[in-house]
């Protein structure tokens, strides 16, 4: 019996419980540390943090609606936002006394609420919390009160004047706000069954659909920051309303079509504002930053702002799946190849350059200058999951897993209270602490919160819904795909029978575990298990999987595209056991990645490891891996005692704090040697003090005395939890 | 007989002719290509280049003076300059119709003239050119007519309102204009004997002296951009007027004294302008960018803007020499050590970071991100020559020579018509062509001219006066130091006798040559010859030097601090012959320079070499030097056929043009191997096309097939003369 990969959709969050020690700890952090903190932030109650103004803006818009006035009828002065390095921002003249009627913050500030309510929805799905639900319902009441009668819901334009709405799609994020609102509304609806916000989101989507499209008289625009594409597909799937998928398809199909809408918009706005039109100078083509440089079906290289890009590709994959569009499938296949073969960090990060938070050119993957935004890794996981939904293929899950376990989790401290936007693969604290502004984007310790709060709530929403990355159900209704091995129980309808799959696993530290089938009655179908690439080739990996029914011929196996398909009649109590090997693997990069020539990194299972100064002393560049003794590398269990409190006053004004917390993990010991270095001479030493020349004759016969050392490597996601320290993923040979 | 190093001063430019093929070719370029071009630029007659407005401003100020009006009495509207990344700039509202009465350009635009007239002065000293001299005299008439009656001469304030002069020393460059004016005036005076400009410069200096100082009622300020310090010493030495040295000493002594003048000035200006005072955030201390963070005598680490820094240190060395100030000598000694031991590129460049064009922290010497401004290398040569003037020490000349032959000359194309500001040690054209804005300061081909024209005229003035770096005369009047070996004839008074030293040399390609003594009568004294560090240890290097009088005991030798002192009675016809060995030397950096671990660079004599893609194919990062076969490296004579014309239209809008020109030089061949790379798969290839994984298991037993190659290295100064190409100084081992 041969099994063909098929389209599939994730299980509902509420139908999968997570009792895996690793992920339940992460979800616990999201639930108990981040979500409450985030609510305070939305309401501008976090001392020392820049105000969000998010709920302020919704309340102001609600009050304006209640008064039956509009911004124009109130004669309010338009507050033009100021362009900052993070987008358009409007701030009160007197920060101590914001005007209760005005919009403040970034133009996309409404999404702070949407991301929060999305995480709340996931959390309530599995962890009822009446108090949190009441808070959420009250917030939803405020948000819905801000919506205009026609369905429009973006407080920036509601408060500043609807005459200019939809005139600056490129940078003013109205359709991004729509997308996040939909994501939040669907999650809250699925988590609680309450549809007030869902209806509001649908009304906003309907209004947008009435204004955008190829029909005469409609705007032919599309989102400046993508997300609405995948959100609308989700809305279509949640509501069964095809028209939302049509709107998503329109956005995808129109994007980059000639003449370029954003250029026309830029020209029209220049005329309106009395400014000179400035041609867009994105590379490689105008508007590439927005992935709007050419039709999406023609895009083969991942370019521009990495989060925008991967959000778009996620939406394109969704549209391709729903519409069976070969040209779009081909586009995402090629974009996937471009990213995975040429633009992906070994940590699962994407978007190598800080400039535009963007993809750089092929094979340009700088370690120390890396941007590798947390949100971009999250977006890559979105994209990968959607590629899996098109067809199960081990590589998609391998990349998704790598992004999740490494860069995504690195974005949050082990106490859940501080965050990285930027995830470099090499950090020298001197550079990061602003002695060299080339590295000013690199923070050596995580930050408490951000005025532009995208990464922390993005981590919350993906961690709170991690179940949806573990399982998808095939469209035949009789194929369950297990993509990630995660302890917990998944409930789903399996060929007409209610199945519950109870999984025990110890990822990411061990590849051993089992899945137990619970069925009310026997049912025939396929349980498909991913064969992780880190466990070796498919045949070898499949050999460590055994299923109860195989010996008696009740269940047969097929290996295909990195999945083991176990097909046949399943009975209550059947067990699928696995014990994937998890050796320590030294990795080399394609030599086209100039940055990593002569270097090696270490992975074990899905985890990428790194060296920290706190374990290895300073000067990580002088540590060398001993290539002749690589087989002596070992892994061992280890409890990291995280926590520090450094109130540095070195001019950078940065303070690092992680509350004390112990995390069980695995660390590696790799044989190496340290390049000796002569003592540094202080600048104020006497001029005749011994000096170490900066340059000297290189004589291979006088190679430096190799001092053997054991190099300690910790999981990348756990770095910067023990204080200010050097860090390096790629080690010199 | 023991000889102690002594203070010394350079010979006059006019007293030394240069017939050395290498330097006379460079001087020829400066004289025939750059100086005439520069004059056109000063007069805004270069098509396609941003106007300088330099002569425009002088004419406007002269006309205003002639009309007996002032800016205030004319009721002119002040044109506030705008801060750009290169300084304060004021541009006409309609570029096609600049107002003849107004100031335009950078606030320091007057110095375009001063740098030009300085180079003209040097050139006329050895190459009379009546037409050029007439042009120069006419320009001087205009400049002098712009001077106010009180001696003040900075057209920015003359044209904008003298009520605000000397209120923004930190960034408005008035004292920088003074410094350059003095440098130009002295050079023109020494080259032509004409003192009109010298007198004008002296009057400006006198006015400044009347306004600045520690006396009651005077301003306690000092230059925001240093140069006046060394210029005033030069003025003092040229005129014999001690008061100019006193002013220089005041500037040096007051700088960084508490309370910080620039902070007081910033506060006062904030009050005047009604702005909020913004604390300066330079690292490591406020105002370090200006080297004004602490008293100069306490400064031990080179910090801030590299050109400013090395100009200051040059002035400090001059003041230390003239005043025998131990604390200042100690400061420059330590600053020198800091630069040479921790912050100097192997190309003689300094100032590693583009941000602030500044020194970074110790041992931070990035190759690809390097700023290494041409002017900073010139400034380092200034500093080194002045250290030599304090005491002859081989290291000073070694560094000076390295800066001159490598980064300084790299700043100019071999046709003398295009220029680099930035001199990286590694260039990937993809990065530089703005695919990655981390590298937007790096130009892969030289540029025609610059709106902020500092580097091209700075190259002109140092190349045109290169003689002054070759020889200095000791204060005993009977010691001639030869620091650089340069073909030509030097005339000087030697112990009361007129000596002419005729030098034949073939630097930088061969260490062989001789110096012939021409004397009207025998004279006793010392001829001191530098023993270059590249020729081996002192004893070995001295062993290849022979002097006529040695055998007969008329001349004795002493080796001291990198110089061979030949002392005794010299007679007409005496010959000092030398044949310094010039092996190919592989060089390693101090392992604290993380950037260069596992890498090697090649030098031969004073020349640092580099690999270019045009010789070695693309992917220079995949070239490895074969450490086991280093002794097979060879040097050979080579004629570079420079010249290309690339009108690229890749969005960067940059065009590279070098006129065809042949240059004789030496190239190296170094045995190495190339790391193989699988063919790249195009992004639009079918999805099932063969793919090359980005990461794979590293297995030292399956080391890549080493493809032996001969690596071709050319002199660093000659890179980017044959088209767009990769370049790399430090090669992987």
Automatic annotation (TrEMBL), chains A, B:
InterPro entries: 6-hairpin_glycosidase_sf (IPR008928), Beta-AFase-like (IPR049174), Beta-AFase-like_GH127_C (IPR049049), Beta-AFase-like_GH127_cat (IPR012878), Beta-AFase-like_GH127_middle (IPR049046). Residues 15-467 form the Non-reducing end beta-L-arabinofuranosidase-like GH127 catalytic domain. It comes from the Bacteria. It holds the Pfam family Glyco_hydro127C. One of its GO terms (biological process) is carbohydrate metabolic process. Residues 479-582 form the Non-reducing end beta-L-arabinofuranosidase-like GH127 middle domain. Residues 587-732 form the Non-reducing end beta-L-arabinofuranosidase-like GH127 C-terminal domain. This is Glycosyhydrolase.
